[in-house]
């Protein structure tokens, strides 16, 4: 018996439609000779279409939850971003901001700031899932898509404005959101931030106890 790709199956179970007959038919088709590429295409189509349909059917809930995910990022970075990144850089490398302005040595802070950024993205994924225990997967995907779009647009705009003006001041709370998509961070956030959100969200969804059926 052919075994389907394990990660694709986990994705289908966590984020796909709550339809046992569809999942069973998909597995039967794969076992009858379909390719791994076909299986992946079917899983991704089911996950993305299901998410889009759920968001379209519940637009207010989707918008509120996505907004809460972004509010979590902004509040966390505004309250703890600079203090946490600076403190960790000082503890590990004996770095301080005053010396950095004189010596232009910023790499310790850049490293710890990236860690703070990715921690914030993980925290926002927790909030999004906890706010939608009954049907977290579609909203998690919608939030992940919004993060990816914002990071791409921010990277393009900052690159254009930097080329034209030489520098672009970014408020500190926003810095931790967009910095990981910029050139000096190797644009790592374009891939890592959505992946972290999805992985943390997957783990939370799998740990969630089943919700009681409504009467």
Quick rundown:
This protein is mainly alpha-helical and 215 residues long.
Structural class: mainly alpha
Give the total of domains.
2
Q: Helical percent range?
A: over 70%
The shape is: elongated
Q: What would the average pLDDT be, to the nearest integer? A: 88
Following the backbone from N to C, one meets helices and strands in this order, namely HHHHHHHHH
Radius of gyration: 20 Å
Number of helices: 9
Strand content: under 5%
> Largest sheet, if any?
none
State the separation between the terminal residues, measured CA to CA: 40 Å
- Number-wise, the strands total 0
Uncertain spans:
211-215
Helices and strands in order, then pairings?
Elements: H1 6-15, H2 20-31, H3 36-57, H4 59-93, H5 97-103, H6 107-131, H7 136-165, H8 172-178, H9 189-207
Helix pairs in contact: 1-3, 3-4, 3-7, 4-6, 4-7, 4-8, 6-7, 6-9, 7-9
Report on this model:
With 215 residues, the protein is mainly α. It folds into 2 domains: 6-50, no CATH class; 58-207, no CATH class. It is 78% helix and 0% strand. It is built from 9 helices and no strands. It has helices at 6-15, 20-31, 36-57, 59-93, 97-103, 107-131, 136-165, 172-178, 189-207. Helix 6 (107-131) packs antiparallel against helix 7 (136-165) and helix 6 packs parallel to helix 9 (189-207). The longest helix has 35 residues, at 59-93. It is elongated and about 65 Å long. 27% of the residues are buried. The model is unreliable at 211-215 (pLDDT under 50).
């Amino acid at each position: 018996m052919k075994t389907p790709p394990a990660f694709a199956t986990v994705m289908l179970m966590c984020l796909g439609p709550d339809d046992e007959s569809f999942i069973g038919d998909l597995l039967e088709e794969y076992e009858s000779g379909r390719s791994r590429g076909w299986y992946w295409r079917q899983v991704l189509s089911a996950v993305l279409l299901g998410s889009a349909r759920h968001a379209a059917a519940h637009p207010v809930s989707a918008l509120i939850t996505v907004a809460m995910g972004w509010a979590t990022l902004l509040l966390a970075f505004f309250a703890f971003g600079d203090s946490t990144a600076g403190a960790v850089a000082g503890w590990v490398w004996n770095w301080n901001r005053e010396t950095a302005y004189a010596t232009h040595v910023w790499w310790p802070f850049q490293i710890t700031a990236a860690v703070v950024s990715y921690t914030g993205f993980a925290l926002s994924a927790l909030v999004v899932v906890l706010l939608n225990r009954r049907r977290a997967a579609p909203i998690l995907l919608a939030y992940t898509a919004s993060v990816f779009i914002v990071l791409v647009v921010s990277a393009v705009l900052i690159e254009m404005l930097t080329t034209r003006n030489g520098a672009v001041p970014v408020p500190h709370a926003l810095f931790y959101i967009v910095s990981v998509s910029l050139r000096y961070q190797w644009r790592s956030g374009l891939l890592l931030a959505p992946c972290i959100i999805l992985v943390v969200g997957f783990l939370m969804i799998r740990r969630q106890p089943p919700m009681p059926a409504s009467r």
